[in-house]
Specification:
Structural class: alpha+beta
Number of strands: 13
Strand content: 15-25%
Distance between the termini: 89 Å
Radius of gyration: 49 Å
């Protein structure tokens, strides 16, 4: 096999030439060797130059060289230039006949036309036969034209030379065929690679255009956290996190802040978390300082090699400063409205209570109307309290029997379950003492059980369980209702969120129950998780750590 440097040299100095020039260059080695033979004859065997056959061979060589230069081979029929090596065989025959008795190796000049015919790639079998017959005629014709009697021994004596030329021709043909096959395979592979490269460039350009079009910052990092790809939006976002005087800081130096504008530790920064193998969604942080500070929501997914090892990660950065500002404004508005509602409601409830204290002196119908008014006013007061609960919640842990709380919540919800055709069951121990705020945990259970029943409008089963897991309390409310999609699960604990099926079926609610429940659990140092599948059901799980009391 040839190396790339040799291929480049051949292409530049031979294959990129015109056909006429390539024919001339192929003929030159034989011409130069013949000139060397003439010089050798002139120096040591001048008698050769007087021989008519030798002179005829030289004139033929001159004529052949002139043909190489004069004939426009590129306008001739395909393969016409092969007439040159056939003429060379005739010329070599004359030169050999005129000098063989003095220069014994002159017959090897036939190697040049034989090689040309065999390496041309045209009619390979014909080339082998022609090379053999041509060299055979070179050694036999002088015998038939000479004075000696033709005998089998005389004819057999020079046969080694033609058979040697045949073997040489076959070797060249085989090597040339193999090289042509490899060349065609390489050309096909080269064309395939060029096509793949062109497609890759097109796709890369399309990907870059798409990434630069979206309003989300995208960065791809390798397993070491080094940037491999970053779109224009991410360039802008990252520029806002640059510390003053640092053009290319590491991630640990970027101005990234968590809740309360506290600097994020290195291991809690999104890129670091991603390359450590974490995948997360809507991880909130702040970048920059002062008026340029921006709220950013980050999402990351880890890339894996075939062996499961990390191959890097893709992290998306979404600037949701305006959304956060809008949410803050909405929360302020709700809080202000709630406070404004509470003052007149307190007055209304106070006066209703005073009037109903003397209910015996009121007419029955008036008493009934006032009672209904009081009940609705109390309901409205609870709704206002719910709006304010997450902003100012206090918990007061005390020794509480969780089993009793769960049982009371089930008993309270049973009438609602019967109206919806829901079977309500409980799996709780006889006693489960823990340090919790009884009122708040009871409220959380009421919310979860109420939701489970409401979102099982076609009947089903709701199961309430409470167990001790070591020192932790685990509460679960499982239903077989309509369930939630993955997108709805992601927003389940968002204020005022209502799933589409609930809106379509006009299921009552404000979208505050789960948010309040999450706030209650969080204030106990616990966590609440949801597992759900559309049309299969939902499981809400509360874990309260280090809460169980072991009583002697």
């Amino acid at each position: 096999m040839t190396n790339p440097a040799q291929d480049t040299l051949l292409k530049r100095h031979f294959y990129k030439r015109t056909l006429r020039m390539r024919v001339l260059l192929t003929q030159l080695p034989l011409t130069l060797t013949v000139l060397l033979t003439v010089g050798l004859a002139a120096a040591y065997y001048p008698v050769i130059l007087a021989g008519p056959h030798f002179i005829a061979g030289l004139w033929m060589q001159a004529a052949i060289l002139a043909l190489c230069v004069a004939v426009p081979w590129d306008r001739m029929p395909r393969g016409a230039f092969l007439a040159i090596p056939y003429l060379d065989l005739v010329s070599v025959g004359f030169i050999r006949d005129g000098s063989a008795q003095y220069i014994t190796s002159v017959g090897l000049l036939a190697l040049f036309p034989v090689f040309w015919l065999s390496a041309s790639g045209y009619a390979r079998k014909t080339a082998i036969v022609s090379s053999t017959l041509g060299t055979l005629l070179i050694v036999w014709v002088p015998l038939f034209l000479g004075p000696a009697k033709i005998t089998p021994e005389l004819l057999a004596k020079p046969l080694v030379f033609p058979f040697m030329m045949m073997a040489f021709s076959m070797t060249v043909v085989i090597m040339t065929a193999s090289m042509d096959s490899q060349r065609k395979a390489l050309q096909a592979k080269d064309a395939e690679l060029r096509t793949a490269l062109e497609l890759s460039k097109q796709r890369e350009q399309m990907l870059a255009t798409v990434l630069d079009t979206v309003a989300v910052g995208i960065v791809v990092v390798d397993e070491g956290g080094n940037d491999q790809l970053m779109n224009a939006t991410q360039d802008t976002i990252r520029a806002q996190a640059l510390p003053p005087g640092m053009a290319d800081p590491q991630e640990k130096d970027l101005l990234l802040f968590g809740h309360g504008k506290v600097p994020l530790p290195p291991d809690e920064r999104p890129v670091r978390r991603a390359i450590l193998g974490e995948s997360f969604t809507n991880y909130q942080m702040w970048i920059g300082q002062g008026e340029n500070s921006r709220a950013i929501s980050t999402t990351a997914r880890t890339m894996r090699n075939e062996d499961g090892s990390s191959a890097g990660a893709v992290i998306a950065f979404h600037d949701n400063t305006e959304v956060m500002a809008a949410l803050a404004a909405k929360d302020d508005f709700v809080a202000n409205v709630s406070h404004e509602f509470r003052t007149p409601l307190t007055s209304i409830l106070g006066y209703l209570g005073m009037v109903l204290d003397d209910a015996d002196r009121l007419p029955a119908d008036i008493n009934k109307f006032l009672t209904i008014t009081q009940r609705n006013a109390l309901r409205l007061n609870r709704l206002v309290s719910d709006l304010l609960t997450t902003d100012s919640m206090e918990v007061t842990p005390a020794m509480t029997d969780i089993a009793t709380l769960a049982h009371e919540s089930v008993v309270s919800a049973r009438p609602m379950a019967e109206r919806n055709g829901v079977e309500l069951t409980e799996h709780v121990p006889d006693q489960l003492w823990a340090m919790v705020d009884a009122g708040r945990i009871g409220q959380a259970l009421d919310n979860l059980i109420s939701n489970a029943i409401k979102y099982s409008p076609d009947g089903g089963t709701v199961t309430v369980s409470a167990v001790a897991d070591g020192a932790d309390v685990v509460l679960e409310v499982r239903d077989t209702g309509m369930g939630m999609s993955s997108a709805e699960q992601a927003q389940a604990f968002t204020k005022f969120f209502r799933a589409d099926p609930a809106l379509e079926r006009s299921i009552p609610g404000l979208g505050l129950g789960l948010l309040i429940t999450k706030a209650i659990v969080a204030n106990h140092g616990g966590a609440i998780t949801v597992q759900s599948e559309r049309n299969v059901g939902t499981t809400m799980r509360i874990e309260l750590p280090e809460s169980v009391l072991v009583l002697n």
